Amino acid sequence: MLSFIRISRWLAGNASLFIIAIAVCTFFLPELFSWVRGTTQTVILGIIMLTMGLTLTTNDFRILTRRPFDILIGACAQFFIMPCVAYLLVRVFHLEPALALGIMLVGCCPGGVSSNIMSYLCHGDVAFSVGMTCASTLLAPVMTPLLMEITAGEIIEIDAIGMFLNILIVTIIPVGMGCFLNYTYSKSKYFPTIQSLMPGLSVICLACIVGGVISTVHDDLVNRGLWLFLWTFAVVFCHNSLGYLLGYLSGCLAGFSKAKKRTISIEVGMQNAGLATVLAGNFFAAQPLAVLPCAISCAWHSISGTILAGLFLKADTRQEKKL
After folding, report:
1. Closest of 36, 21, 30 to residue 299, by C-alpha
2. Are 142 and 64 in contact (CB under 8 A)?
3. What does the radius of gyration of the chain's CA atoms come to, in whole angstroms?
4. Per-residue pLDDT tens for 122-159?
5. Contacts of 42 (CB under 8 A, 6+ apart)
6. Which of 163, 175, 176, 235 is least buried, going by the fewest C-beta atoms within 10 A?
7. Helix axes 97-108, 291-322, angle to 10 degrees
8. Residue (of 146, 120, 222, 134) closest to 175 by Cα position
9. pTM of the predicted protein model
10. How many whole angstroms separate alpha carbon 294 and alpha carbon 283?
11. 132 contacts 74 by C-beta, under 8 angstroms
12. Model pLDDT for residues 8-21, shown as the tens digit of each residue
């Protein structure tokens, strides 16, 4: 069991490298993850959200009532900045409809699961980070379909009710089950060991989702060459970077402390791209390229979050040297 815990820690610490490696392997061997489709993909995302729930306690939810102003500012920034930035980038880059749907879907999704880890690494406000993740996840069944209707309704008809139910099934229910198991068995002798395995399992599941996407869009990537990937990556990069910047500025406007400004920056910039990937596959099957920005976001958000956390720590080191 100790070896499994070590593997889990390694995967959690090298999530982006592992996901990129899986993506590259799948590009050359697309049949590896051809089984990750439809219901299977949905179940895998449900497992990711279950792992998140297993790490949450009742104290993590109490912050929603203890710090309502912080959570309100965070939620407003989350569901205003990223959809607006995505909408603007679609027009600036003149994206084709499928890619436009993908990047706007990423923008309309809640905060990413790994954002809490990044907040911890850069000495952010971890309690605030967990609270923001909980709040945005709870709001997602309503906010994501609503924002997609507003931003992408002119491109394709949005099944808002179907999307609401899908998000409810793959996010709220698994998270709720995880929280219930944590509450019920937290004092069990073996439960902490199970919890320590969850980060690694989450990374493996996310890698499977990315592999399934690469398998789906493989032919388009081959036919349209490197340009399609680079153009899509440029949009994902701008969307993610502007999310970090504008999230930090929103913290400044709210008068947040340094730790909270770092946290809101990371929470706004890092999206639940895994959820976006599953929704794109389930609701925009007629536009298969819609999953490409979601898959690239899955890998890039982990990389950029790590880089940003490192930059924040370097800023602390410089500040200490001046003193």
Report:
1. 21
2. no
3. 19
4. 888 888 888 888 889 889 999 999 999 999 888 888 88
5. 166, 169, 170, 278, 282
6. 176
7. 50
8. 134
9. 0.86
10. 14
11. yes
12. 888 877 777 888 88
